[in-house]
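PT: before anyone asks, these are the final sequences, not the draft ones from last week. 1162 residues across everything. Please model them as a single complex and drop the result in this thread when it's through.
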Amino acid sequence: MSTLRVWAPEAATVEIEAGGQRHALVPLAGDWWEAELPDLAAGEDYAYVLDGGEPLPDPRSMHQPHGVHGPSRVVDPGSFDWHDADWHGVPLAGGVIYELHVGTFTPEGTLDAAIGKLDHLATLGVDFLELLPVTAFPGQHGWGYDGVALYAVHEAYGGPAALARFVDAAHVRGLGVILDVVYNHLGPSGNYLERYGPYFTQRHQTPWGPAVNYDDVGSAEVRRFVVENARMWLRDYHVDGLRLDAVHAIIDTSAVPILEQLAADVEWLGAHLRRTMFLIAESDLNDPRMVRSREAGGHGMDAVWSDDFHHALHAVLTGERSGYYADFGELDHLATAFAEGYVYAGQHSAYRGRIHGRPPVLVPTYRFLGYLQDHDQVGNRARGERSAALMSQGRLRVGAALVLLAPFTPMLWMGEEWGASTPWQYFTDHDDPALADSVRRGRRAEFAAFGWKPSEVPDPQDPATFTRSKLNWAEVTETSHAELLEWHRKLLALRRAEPAFTDPQFQHVSVSYDEDAGWLVLGRGSTMLVVANVSRERQLVPIDGTPIDVLAASAHGFAFAAGAVEIDGESVCIVRLSQFG
Amino acid sequence: MSTLRVWAPEAATVEIEAGGQRHALVPLAGDWWEAELPDLAAGEDYAYVLDGGEPLPDPRSMHQPHGVHGPSRVVDPGSFDWHDADWHGVPLAGGVIYELHVGTFTPEGTLDAAIGKLDHLATLGVDFLELLPVTAFPGQHGWGYDGVALYAVHEAYGGPAALARFVDAAHVRGLGVILDVVYNHLGPSGNYLERYGPYFTQRHQTPWGPAVNYDDVGSAEVRRFVVENARMWLRDYHVDGLRLDAVHAIIDTSAVPILEQLAADVEWLGAHLRRTMFLIAESDLNDPRMVRSREAGGHGMDAVWSDDFHHALHAVLTGERSGYYADFGELDHLATAFAEGYVYAGQHSAYRGRIHGRPPVLVPTYRFLGYLQDHDQVGNRARGERSAALMSQGRLRVGAALVLLAPFTPMLWMGEEWGASTPWQYFTDHDDPALADSVRRGRRAEFAAFGWKPSEVPDPQDPATFTRSKLNWAEVTETSHAELLEWHRKLLALRRAEPAFTDPQFQHVSVSYDEDAGWLVLGRGSTMLVVANVSRERQLVPIDGTPIDVLAASAHGFAFAAGAVEIDGESVCIVRLSQFG
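LR: through. Structure below.
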């Protein structure tokens, strides 16, 4: 027997359409409506009808087998088959994240196909797989940030049961799963939420239109919709953590901000399910409140993406200075990120034209995610070039070492570990021709500002743009790719073997550099040094201490003595110092 | 090859005695001494000689096979055989602790014998086993708080390898292990630490003599000694958490108190080992700083024992009012504990003659341990009576429900689950006759103040006192014990099944009571009520809501209607309310 409930505060009547018939729902307290349908079993389709109008998908539909515009299908999460009974989660601290997009991770582009790559990831040495959004969006393929059925798993990825199979297979291999969820906007097409109630408010605006209503009339139920969505992934799909997309676009003036409410709810659920769970925010606010504990007045996020570190590293390694890279480009920026977390922590940002950020005092290092690339930094380029296409093999290895041995929680973007040669471009599959055209033109206009001709910018709607963005796994075994993969494995093993590399305290980080000479030395604890030479010349890098061992080196031509390491241009080596000075 | 190092800041020469020979150690920086002994293998004995004196055990000896006064034995922790490779720890939040004393838990009194009872504990439904101290102390048996070789596992319990086997066996069954460690004093006999350096200071006094030196000259190395001790249990023995004994007897005026340093170090180790680990403090300070996070200015303990809740519950159920129970005895005290954590949070305490405590604002409920009894509350009675000997079977069931469905992290004391009839008394096995006599006389004098005759107080040194304190597992299957065991299992299952019972927020706790009538209703979330009647009479208890289900009841004679539950005297029932009021 199925009991269906839906919140519809503005409707005079609510019906359910199932099996060719309509049944009236009865009103409950709080503008909820309920129906008992003894014959509606898992696997059957249904839709709601408000005030006698057209059938609409359930706002909390777990399955949209006919797409986001079609009827919803009943799912019984109890029917998922689990093999992870002993899984209590894994702490985020000390872990390494691998970000992937299901549609382009494998040729098939499904969750089941992704299971076939889990052994590769376990061997690589990462701890968590972070999936770009898997909620249902219109069309077959896309990045996933245009999701509209927030409780449903995208059909082209395999639907709800496939997500459960993926998480289960990951857990069996000791890998945790993080899901990217978008609570700041809905996609421009297929958004039926607003038909049901005040899910959006005109009080605040986002880059994608009216804001989700977290603090206006009726927001209590909207907040509940979001909180229970988070619960569903963590409880029904055994997901370990959520990555909250662009929380700077969530405007909430409530005394208990929705982020804090989510954090409290995750604490509640973790205590019940006896599992370690966490929330990671994507925020460009450089505000330490994001990751401060709730008792210390913060939002209680477990970690936050750190674009400052990315930008500092990217600008140094590529020499790019356009757009937001204008604020970066010196080794000094990179050194500041290593030593303090944010680069902009109260200083004036030329790119933003305002003061930006605040020092993250007392925040442990692992609460910042550090990366050389991510889906945005690659895909938001006109042609979607990865780091491997933008710098020398030597610099790529330096970048890998500075990410994987950084104080932060490292994150790799799928294919980064072998320097995938495929681009990752902006692709869409909008079914609304006007929207498709607008997206195409918007993309071209955006990059025209940077000097790109329209013909040089791939057409997001062209299926080839999507296909071109799929990883080519055949290249993994080619020598240069295999060597880079081995370099990543080596660094990840080193990170795990030496506690200094997961030390959570910024106080134990030291940095020295020479801007003109082009070298930087990152010290972790009292005995570990990452000596990076980003210049083209071989040079003598002064260090404070006596090396007794080289733990890894990206080039063979190094030498060391008390007080100095000599290394090749565009190379990095990791040395252990004598603990007795 | 063995490299041995020891800190001996006051010695002019340090030698090692092994294999009948003495070898000189060479001084290192920081008053450390070192020797390389290629022939000293695991399993071989050695001792240090300072300034040509008598052989002394190693302060960091992991094994004292001949007792605490004898030579130390080399242990290779790498030789422990582990089967818990997938173990990443279990969060404390939502868990249940079972406290046990190895020597009296089984007839054999060993860690290996305790392994034989792990299935009983897993079936019971607890999550963590907390061992009373297992560090080496003089004599064969004792509570363990007289430990002197803080890095060694007591030989009578099976020594180091036995502890590793125990933890491994627990992990394989999904059970975590917490170790009780004593960092506030050393036992009165066999303490050789002071020969090596300034491990103690006259600057502060404890009930057991000079305080451990955490803030005086030379304290850096003493603190390191303690921090590395904690690390050893967590790293080498895979222990999940430490219970820090009587931290109110640790006086540390440093800017970074040792507790905070320990918490930071555990965070560091957890990030390296990728395991959930925690620290629980025993503190009678009622100071929320203990469990506040470090970033919020606290010591960062994960939880603290809550004697206030114990005293409130014990006094209500037994009617006892002597000693510290003078501050308790009303349902109002119990209600305050449920609703706010501490009973004394800034009020005047008649027993202490001063203002006591501070409100634990924003502290999650699970950071308090709640118990009806513990080793101290039982063993520190003149005759070591357990709760089962002090109250009716009905009240015992009420007590179990109020502990296991409380907002706190529940803790059971070994045998409590079946109402063990054996006492747990104060027993010692001091090898120093003068000390033995002093302990015996001290014990009698202590209880003379409460009207006990000397002959009524068991002699701690009498081996029969120890033997009498061992659990009698034969009684588990006797009907009345088996029924009580079933009651505990049922409550533990209920706690796990209903998220309201592990809800971490005090705001979601409600309490009503009638002091004269003798009933108390504990509300968890909006739909769970624990209705307790501690009077002897059957009565009608008013409640706020409409019961729709009885989840458990300790007596059959209950009835319910909207707004009221009628239950027998000295009984408890747990009802679910309609969520629609």
